[in-house]
Amino acid sequence: MERVEWLTEREERAWRALQFMQMRLDGELARQLATDSALSYPDYRVLVALTDRPDGRLRLFELAAVLGWEKSRASHHVARMTSRGLVDKEPCDDDRRGAFVVITERGRRELADAAPGHVATVRRLFVDLLSDDQLDSIADVAESVLANLVRREPAASRMRL
Amino acid sequence: MERVEWLTEREERAWRALQFMQMRLDGELARQLATDSALSYPDYRVLVALTDRPDGRLRLFELAAVLGWEKSRASHHVARMTSRGLVDKEPCDDDRRGAFVVITERGRRELADAAPGHVATVRRLFVDLLSDDQLDSIADVAESVLANLVRREPAASRMRL
DNA sequence: CTAACATAGTGGACGTGTCATCTATTCCCA
DNA sequence: TGGGAATAGATGACACGTCCACTATGTTAG
């Protein structure tokens, strides 16, 4: 095992603060939605993704891709949402393996109720605290970290016997 | 319901990218630990917190505070770790409600095995990609977001009947 | 054409995290 | 000092997310 550099003070500060921020932020967002609406944070994200489409429908694998979820997670979550009447599943004629996820009237109503409070909270706890430069800096960092992750990913698929 | 400003393009870019980064980063970190060691990411953080103390022990509520966890989460997680022999629980004489969480030899061994790979992954996927300015910027942002969260928190406790 | 492979989606098992609730103890102040 | 409030911790119920294995359908190369 070669020598491993532990983090410098500067690195540690950034890494710790980021972890804490994300944990607390997600917690608050989830809590706000749970308190002020009947939607969980994942529910909310699914419904937003669906209403971004003119017909309010997405193939399950597209939904997973848009949200950055694994397909299994999307399947489980959509199943839960279907049982609560927030979305419906419909078969797909082009590809008979496939399924569409469609937002219901009830889903639209609950999203419309929840959205203002959620957006206000994102502003209050995050966006409104930051300058334009800080927002850009965050986006730059996050995008380069993501690009690096994606670049590494195909390595696994390339591994063939 | 007053009018709510949805996010500008710049704000949305930062917010979305940050969410994605954190989700993917946590996933990779968890996956790396699961693959290369017998520890989960939460396990790892508990053991690090304990070894930061000279005697390898912390009161349960202190552990929760250090990690930024709710006490219930700490209690559940420590129970799971105790059953796997990574930590022990010991009664506290000063405060008979209390309990100490103590790292075991086995816990120390597994942490020592897991640490190099974990740190290397944090470097590879995050720290080493960023400049000093970027690291400082992240830390500044995260700390001000956290300070804002803490500032709001006491409001709830102040609410009395 | 068909055999191998890839992809869409499902479902069970399990670990994780939150909320609400409960007990026991300690703190505090009138 | 006695009694109400705060605190430490445990626990049960439930939602969430991952891994893995599986079915069914589509795609492609020989």
Polypeptide structure, described:
The structure is a homodimer of 161-residue chains. Chain A has a single domain (39-153), classed as Arc Repressor Mutant, subunit A, CATH 1.10.10. In chain A, strand 2 (87-91) and strand 3 (99-103) form a beta hairpin. The longest helix of chain A has 28 residues, at 9-36. Chain A has helices at residues 9-36, 41-51, 60-67, 71-83, 105-125, 132-152, 154-158; strands at 57-59, 87-91, 99-103. Chain A is globular and about 55 Å long. The first copy, chain A, has a 3-stranded antiparallel β-sheet with strand order 1-3-2. Chain A has 161 residues and is mainly alpha-helical. Helix content of chain A is 66%, strand content 8%. The relative contact order of chain A is 0.10. Chain A has 7 helices and 3 strands; from the N terminus they run H-H-E-H-H-E-E-H-H-H. Chain A binds a DNA duplex (30 and 30 nucleotides) through helix 1 and helix 4.
Summarize the SSE layout with pairings.
The structure is a homodimer of 161-residue chains.
Chain A: H1 9-36, H2 41-51, E1 57-59, H3 60-67, H4 71-83, E2 87-91, E3 99-103, H5 105-125, H6 132-152, H7 154-158
Antiparallel strand pairs in A: 1-3, 2-3
The first copy, chain A, binds a DNA duplex (30 and 30 nucleotides) through helix 1 and helix 4.
